[in-house]
Amino acid sequence: MNALKQQRISVLGATGSIGGSTLDVVARHPDRFEVFALTANSRIDELENLCVRHAPRYAVVQGGEDAANLSVRLGRRGLTTEVMHGVSGLIEVAAHSDVDVVMAAIVGAAGLLPTLAAARAGKRVLLANKEALVLSGSLFMDVVRDSGATLLPIDSEHNAIFQSLPAGYGRDPEAAGVRRILLTASGGPFRLTPLEQLHGVTPEQACAHPNWVMGRKISVDSATMMNKGLEVIEAHWLFNAPAERIDVVVHPQSVIHSMVEYVDGSVIAQLGNPDMRTPIANALAYPDRVEAGVGPLDLFRIGRLDFEAPDLVRFPCLRLAYECLREGGAAGAVLNASNEEAVAAFLDRRLRYTDIPAIIECALERASDMSVESIDAVLDTDARSRAIARSEIDKRLYQ
Ligand code: NAD
Ligand code: MG
Predict the structure, then answer these.
(1) Where does Mn(2+) bind (predicted)?
(2) Cα(258) to centroid of ligand 2, in Å?
């Protein structure tokens, strides 16, 4: 066998849940991967420890003071890691000519510019940051096409779909004989909670996901099923599938990560334990397969697989996401921005859980003259939608 060329990787959002799982897989394969850069928002103690373990060439944090502080600390520990800060630092490590692979695992719209920079630079982009794609889908996919970047999905559902589509899928469902994409959803922690109790649920309850351990924002999105809504839009952009060809199937065991149904009636699924190291390892090594640290699937212990249709009364966020996908234009960007603001307010105990969809609906109604045709337009739409959402949140402050 030929010697492998070691791939240099920048992990954006290294201190997060996906960042941690990525570094776990990377550390299992020092022959294949070398950590080039690690980034974090503000948790510099954690980033310091990760730098000691992985000795990256660069580290990036949000603020200048944190950067100076981290730089002194790393120097004391004998590291030559150079510390940068702000969006310009993120963009630099995402697009650096010595980088091969970029893990885009910053949460929310904050990840947009560095992820786009990686795509523009033609990198292998491992996309966890679905919000970036929901915000700027058409523009983002144009950049990927024009630069020749390789975009590989990390979201477990989209990675499952990617694995269930024919190799070399040309982003044409019709030509590939695809009838439907079946996105599975666990239904989250409130699938069976009596509806009249939902207005009183706490951030802790919302973040206690039955099957996955994840960051707080995506955990709340899973509870409202906005996560699945964002994923429907993500699937649309990644696989060029219209809303009519994307169905959501609630599957509480989270063993089937998603499925593709073909015109001949075949349904191809990808199964596995709910552990993000599987999709991460798949995308890191693609088209090879590497050990991810994930144990074998014990079907006898699981015993049964259940399926049900999503309840759009219980989960209005899923309905709103489908409506935005059908509407097109800037609707997805307004949906994403207002959701980020509403979720942050809920996590801060400034907003009730049941007001999250109400805020988004108001933002969608009030948004006018929004565009996503250029990156400046996307950023402007994002900022204006957040301002609208914040003014609606202020009207409903948690009593
Ligand atoms: P997390 O909250 O655990 O981590 C977020 C990371 O982003 C942290 O490293 C944080 O420092 C960084 N960050 C946050 N705000 C930032 C900012 N303004 N500037 C720079 N960096 C910033 O989140 P997570 O659960 O790891 O999710 C990351 C992304 O992956 C999200 O887009 C999420 O939807 C997606 N995703 C996560 C999972 C999962 O299992 N956790 C599964 C599928 C998709
Ligand atoms: Mg997912």
Answers:
(1) 155, 157, 231
(2) 10
Helix segments in the chain, DSSP class H: 17-27, 44-54, 64-76, 86-95, 112-120, 130-147, 156-164, 203-207, 216-224, 226-239, 277-285, 299-302, 316-327, 331-347, 355-366, 375-395
Query: What is the model's pLDDT at position 211?
Result: 86
Would you say how long the chain is, in residues? 399
Rounded to two decimals, the pTM is 0.97
CA 245 to chain CA centroid, Å, is: 21
> Residue 185: which of 17, 318, 335, 325 has the closest Cα?
318
Q: Give 92-104 pLDDT, tens digit per residue.
A: 999 999 999 999 9
CA-40 nearest atom, ligand 1:
11
In one-letter notation, the amino acid at residue 386 is R
- pLDDT tens by residue, 25-80: 999 999 999 999 999 999 999 999 999 999 999 999 999 999 999 999 999 999 99
Q: Which residues contact 91 (CB under 8 A, 6 or more apart)?
A: 113, 114, 117
Mutate to test the pocket of ligand 1, among 62, 218, 258 (most ligand atoms within 8 A of CB): 218
Question: Residue ranges for the binding site?
Answer: 15-18, 129-131, 155-157, 186, 209, 215, 222, 227-228, 231
Q: In testing the pocket of ligand 1, which one of 106, 220, 225, 336 has its CB within 8 Å of the most ligand atoms? A: 106
Do 363 and 389 form a contact (C-beta atoms < 8 A)?
A: yes
How does residue 355 score in pLDDT terms, banded at 50, 70 and 90? very high
Distance 133 CA to ligand 2 centre (A): 14
Q: Is 21 in contact with 277 (CB distance < 8 Å)?
A: yes
Cβ distance 125 to 102 under 8 Å? yes
Q: How far is the CA of 173 from the centre of ligand 2 (A)?
A: 21
Write the CA distances from 114 to 13, 229, 338, integer angstroms: 11, 24, 21
Cα(275)–Cα(283) distance, integer angstroms? 14
Choose the residue to mutate in 18, 231, 254 for probing ligand 1, maximizing ligand atoms within 8 Å of C-beta: 18
